Amino acid sequence: MPESYIKRILNARIYDLAIETPLDPAPLLSHRTNNTVLLKREDLQPVFSFKIRGAYNKLLQLSGEERARGVIAASAGNHAQGLAMGAKHLGIKAIIVMPRTTPQIKVDAVRARGAKVVLHGDNYDEASSHAQQLVAEKGLTYIHPFDDPDVIAGQGTVAMEILRQYPGHIDAIFVAVGGGGLCAGVAAYVKYVRPNVKVFAVESDESACLKAALEKNRRVALPQVGIFADGIAVAKIGKETYRVLKKTIDGVITVNTDEICAGIKDIFEDTRSIAEPAGAVSVAGMKKYVEETGCTGQTFVAIDCGANINFDRLRYISERTEIGEQREAILAVTIPERPGAYKEFCKALGRRNITEFNYRYADKEAARIFVGIQVGMGGSDRQELVEMLTNKGYTVEDMTENELAKLHIRHMVGGHAPQVGEEMVFRFEFPERPGALYAFLNRVAGQWNISLFHYRNHGSAFGRVLVGMQVPKGERAQVRKFLDEINYPYWDETENPAYRFFLA
Q1: pLDDT in tens, 417-430
Q2: Judgement on whether residues 435 and 485 belong to the same structural domain of the protein
């Protein structure tokens, strides 16, 4: 089956616009993982992502009549830029439908390359549906971002370059997956030319549509997609890409937001370039593979597939990186409420660096502190720290993996509110765009009394809010029904230890 793509890939005449990107060594990553790590630098393409390859290859295959009608695509940004650049090069009119949550840097780049931008929906699937409506209305030629053989073949030229640039033995190639176009092209070529090389698909755990499809043995639509890694935020794997991938890849690895952020830092330290979240997913997956298998002395290639990131998102990324690298422990610690207790606690930590220290008076017997502490890489040092503090008589709750603690508690100054009764606490996510917070409040306010509220804009594609509401016990089923109807992802955090410890 992969052989059907070989001729298409070899015949892709894309290099009057796309470039052959370097395969760079990553010495720091190699040293840390005890393996040889190489980065395929697709972030160096003219549109700062691999998408120029597939989009331009598809445009070259269009008939004169199809070109004359003009082209349209739905894209979170990278396919849009590739298509806009290719269409301008060939003199073809282009319309791009982009989710309203797309980073502004991508929207501006598409417009700068001559395409008309239509902003619609909060994710790729909503944008895609609107693009299909425009196809029906205007007779435009639709250029799919991933589920098209010519697009897949264009992306497959990445693998052709890798194997030519590194003729030595490669143990595995790690490829980010959204809709699957890049991974399908890479896997099809690699498994035909060098079948002993493993190919691993890597997905964000917030949009793992390939993993879900393989588990069900059929394509399924995810009910909810997180859009931190917006370049791969796809709810359903492509039909053609799934057909290829299920027969060619050696496995799927999923990574979380903290691991992706750590991958961005890894790429920066080795290249001094800043990958977008989707661009660093392959590195995060490679590191997870090494951690889980314990392998050493192997040669790995990770495809750095994009660098289109909003600058203001970097503050959030840097915040989560230390946790992603397992270099920071977040602890809730109870210490005596008396003079000198802080000094004793710091002395117990020895020479460990404190990254954060939050406290508010609760009662005259005990002080509850929220503290961030630098630890060595891996979970063992964190565990030893918790055991050491426990042995010294402190009550310790490890909150390093607690999303409520990481997203909200660490940024809140306050304390317990004994006068607030019958409180329920919910964590929400909503698409981040101008007026989004007001729209959210407009839907939630006025139903039950709001007793707690925390929102922080960190430059991501979605906003995060923590809301406390006073809800009589007899109305708790009613409040959940109401929250289901407003159709924002939410989590009931009323029993979360971070909330109980610091705010309840």
Answers
A1: 677 788 888 888 77
A2: yes
